[in-house]
């Protein structure tokens, strides 16, 4: 009774229970798995982060839960009743039982598919495409695969030398043929509606061809887009470099204007009077604006710690802030 | 905003939808004719919706004209998209070449960028120190 109640609550819970193997992720197991992984990596001579799976784990331990399952051996699996394949490839038109109009795209892979899909495609072809022997009407009668392009000599692996300059023409032919076939379809339907299915299937062939040609073109487009992205990135990087350099240059000019670029940092940081005098002197000679109080140089140096310590007189503090303001004024003038 | 290929495919799909819509418009709104002088057009039954919804000839004509124009516009759009497909003049070899070149250039530019950032930071530190020294004295 208690069990069934528990089951009911498990069924009624909003979120499903975690998988049973969550208990396997204990610190000791994780550590053991990491060790195994490192060991495997050193055996194979690859970096640890490149190891996805460690083969031949002891089957009785919980460690097998700590790594992703292996790839299916035959490269196919089923998901929601649909067969899936590791190799994502564009199914050639011919194997789908659709007549190809025009030449195949250069470099496109039109290899044979597995015999399994071939038979199913042919089976569906006999029902849905009863008349593929009569080609769709085209306003360009020369639209045969004959000698428009030299046959692709390079294999599918090597980058092909072909350009796609005939694709424009081919696509435009297809789109014009679409319109023409539609016109013919309307004409036929107005005379003999029963004969329209032939024309409709022609239109279907044309549409499928159009889409297929575009899909074949996709890898090319992807590369093209990659080139564009890289170009943009390059421009961006260069612009950033230039902007950074400009800012640095500007700041350096300011520093040169102030004349204190060459002071070693240690001299500035020493609390002794000499360093202070040197620093103050540099500031003075760097900009004429600081010559307003030559007599006070010693005083200022002597009072340097006064402001910091907080026991200085009002007078000295006032001078300090006055100088401060002057310094910023000089800076502003430089940046303006 | 998708890439041009997808735009083109969508335009083609829309063309197909327009085909269908136009077809149904004509199928629905045409008028009825008789084969001979003795034929009569049967009155539609009251309990059934009429098979055709005949429009006045001028309205029907105008509708046809508009739909035909839309078809042509779509066709022109498709052709425009076709002619603006990028990189048709480049072969795969060329593309690989330029990708490789760009990659190298990117590496160089990235290095330069980092150098510039470093340089900027150094100058920033110097500027900061100078400002502090000004404040102090």
Automatic annotation (TrEMBL), chain A:
<feature type="region of interest" description="Disordered">
    <location>
        <begin position="97"/>
        <end position="164"/>
    </location>
</feature>
<dbReference type="GO" id="GO:0006357">
    <property type="term" value="P:regulation of transcription by RNA polymerase II"/>
</dbReference>
<keyword id="KW-0805">Transcription regulation</keyword>
<dbReference type="GO" id="GO:0070847">
    <property type="term" value="C:core mediator complex"/>
</dbReference>
<dbReference type="InterPro" id="IPR009244">
    <property type="entry name" value="Mediatior_Med7"/>
</dbReference>
<feature type="compositionally biased region" description="Polar residues">
    <location>
        <begin position="110"/>
        <end position="140"/>
    </location>
</feature>
<dbReference type="GO" id="GO:0003712">
    <property type="term" value="F:transcription coregulator activity"/>
</dbReference>
<dbReference type="InterPro" id="IPR044888">
    <property type="entry name" value="Mediatior_Med7_sf"/>
</dbReference>
<keyword id="KW-0539">Nucleus</keyword>
<keyword id="KW-0804">Transcription</keyword>
<keyword id="KW-0010">Activator</keyword>
<dbReference type="GO" id="GO:0016592">
    <property type="term" value="C:mediator complex"/>
</dbReference>
<dbReference type="Pfam" id="PF05983">
    <property type="entry name" value="Med7"/>
</dbReference>
<comment type="subunit">
    <text>Component of the Mediator complex.</text>
</comment>
<comment type="similarity">
    <text>Belongs to the Mediator complex subunit 7 family.</text>
</comment>
<dbReference type="InterPro" id="IPR037212">
    <property type="entry name" value="Med7/Med21-like"/>
</dbReference>
<feature type="compositionally biased region" description="Low complexity">
    <location>
        <begin position="141"/>
        <end position="152"/>
    </location>
</feature>
<protein>
    <recommendedName>
        <fullName>Mediator of RNA polymerase II transcription subunit 7</fullName>
    </recommendedName>
</protein>
<comment type="function">
    <text>Component of the Mediator complex, a coactivator involved in the regulated transcription of nearly all RNA polymerase II-dependent genes. Mediator functions as a bridge to convey information from gene-specific regulatory proteins to the basal RNA polymerase II transcription machinery. Mediator is recruited to promoters by direct interactions with regulatory proteins and serves as a scaffold for the assembly of a functional preinitiation complex with RNA polymerase II and the general transcription factors.</text>
</comment>
UniProtKB/TrEMBL annotation, chain B:
<dbReference type="GO" id="GO:0016592">
    <property type="term" value="C:mediator complex"/>
</dbReference>
<keyword id="KW-0805">Transcription regulation</keyword>
<dbReference type="InterPro" id="IPR021384">
    <property type="entry name" value="Mediator_Med21"/>
</dbReference>
<feature type="coiled-coil region">
    <location>
        <begin position="92"/>
        <end position="119"/>
    </location>
</feature>
<comment type="function">
    <text>Component of the Mediator complex, a coactivator involved in the regulated transcription of nearly all RNA polymerase II-dependent genes. Mediator functions as a bridge to convey information from gene-specific regulatory proteins to the basal RNA polymerase II transcription machinery. Mediator is recruited to promoters by direct interactions with regulatory proteins and serves as a scaffold for the assembly of a functional preinitiation complex with RNA polymerase II and the general transcription factors.</text>
</comment>
<comment type="similarity">
    <text>Belongs to the Mediator complex subunit 21 family.</text>
</comment>
<feature type="region of interest" description="Disordered">
    <location>
        <begin position="37"/>
        <end position="56"/>
    </location>
</feature>
<dbReference type="GO" id="GO:0006357">
    <property type="term" value="P:regulation of transcription by RNA polymerase II"/>
</dbReference>
<dbReference type="GO" id="GO:0003712">
    <property type="term" value="F:transcription coregulator activity"/>
</dbReference>
<keyword id="KW-0804">Transcription</keyword>
<dbReference type="InterPro" id="IPR037212">
    <property type="entry name" value="Med7/Med21-like"/>
</dbReference>
<keyword id="KW-0010">Activator</keyword>
<protein>
    <recommendedName>
        <fullName>Mediator of RNA polymerase II transcription subunit 21</fullName>
    </recommendedName>
</protein>
<keyword id="KW-0175">Coiled coil</keyword>
<keyword id="KW-0539">Nucleus</keyword>
<dbReference type="Pfam" id="PF11221">
    <property type="entry name" value="Med21"/>
</dbReference>
<comment type="subunit">
    <text>Component of the Mediator complex.</text>
</comment>
